[in-house]
Amino acid sequence: MTDLAQVVFSVPPEAAEAVSNLLSEEAGGVEQRDTETSPDAGEAIELLAWLPATDVSQRVKQVETLLSSLTELGVKTAPWSWRSEEVDPASWKDIYKRYFTVNRIGKRFVVKPSWESYETKPGELIIEMDPGMAFGTGLHASTRLIIHAMERVARMGPAPQSVVDLGCGTGILAIAAARLWPTTRILAVDNDETAVRVCKENVQRNGLDGRIHVDLRAASKVDGRYYLVLANLSPDALTELHPRFRRILDDFGRVVLSGLPAENTAAICRLYTRELVLEPEYSEELDGWQALLLRARD
């Protein structure tokens, strides 16, 4: 079992929502403390998140990058600090049970943990998820935006013959694709062993182990051709991977890019449309994050 860490970020109130949104996809939950709940907080907001110990340094760098961007936009970000301490991994399930309940995403999807019952309504598509030590419940804006784009593709038709989910995490996007398109071939890849294990568990939990192939592989090593490419990755990863996308995208395929702070979207869009012969079809912004749906030019 991966070691678990509790990480506390102390930031000015003006930056708290943005940092909380950044952390909420990767953490089991983000607990906010202020002067009313923590006398030591002072004027700052404390954000408590639970992360794999090996991921702490990466998350701190992400927060630092986000705060630098906010500073350039005139948002007060100083002073800020962080601290962490190890937590017993056995307590993880109790931690995320406090935060993860039944949630709706998009027009049709309902995401529920295995320990909660839910009566499905007509037209709803159910995804049963246990984040496990891979974290990520699908509630972050960047994941929601990809599901919105997928629903748009489904409404437009026809069903994609193949889908690849790059950096699949807990597998929510691959499972959503299988729910939307029952006959589609789906590949989910991640370079993190814990994520791949949890993704396989969630795929099996949803009865889709015969439909979705999960592989421990870096996104840069994916081959084959796919009608729909899903990439909820950082701007740096999307920049680095962009030559690979044209090679794996089908002639009439589509790409959904997410994980983009809104201020990075224009540059990423220019990169992909200039060098990959793609054209923008749709974009959406949510809570300061943006996603792009691009399609191959005729």
Question: Gist?
Answer:
With 298 residues, this protein is an alpha/beta fold. The chain is built from eight helices and 14 strands.
Set out the fold topology.
Layout: E1 4-11, H1 13-24, E2 30-33, E3 45-52, H2 56-72, E4 81-87, H3 92-97, E5 103-105, E6 109-112, E7 125-128, H4 141-156, E8 162-166, H5 172-180, E9 185-190, H6 193-205, E10 212-216, E11 226-232, H7 235-248, E12 249-261, H8 262-275, E13 278-286, E14 289-296
Parallel strand pairs: 6-7, 8-9, 8-11, 9-10, 11-12
Antiparallel strand pairs: 1-3, 1-4, 2-3, 5-6, 12-14, 13-14
Could you characterize what this model shows?
By secondary structure, the protein is an alpha/beta fold. It has two domains: 4-95, 2-Layer Sandwich (Alpha-Beta Plaits), CATH 3.30.70; 136-296, Rossmann fold (3-Layer(aba) Sandwich), CATH 3.40.50. The protein is built from eight helices and 14 strands. The protein has helices at 13-24, 56-72, 92-97, 141-156, 172-180, 193-205, 235-248, 262-275; strands at 4-11, 30-33, 45-52, 81-87, 103-105, 109-112, 125-128, 162-166, 185-190, 212-216, 226-232, 249-261, 278-286, 289-296. The strands form three sheets. Strands 10-9-8-11-12-14-13 form a seven-stranded mixed β-sheet, sandwiched between helices. Strand 8, helix 5 and strand 9 (185-190) form a beta-alpha-beta unit. The longest helix has 17 residues, at 56-72. The protein is globular, with a radius of gyration of 19 Å. The N and C termini lie far apart (48 Å). The model has no long low-confidence stretch (mean pLDDT 86).
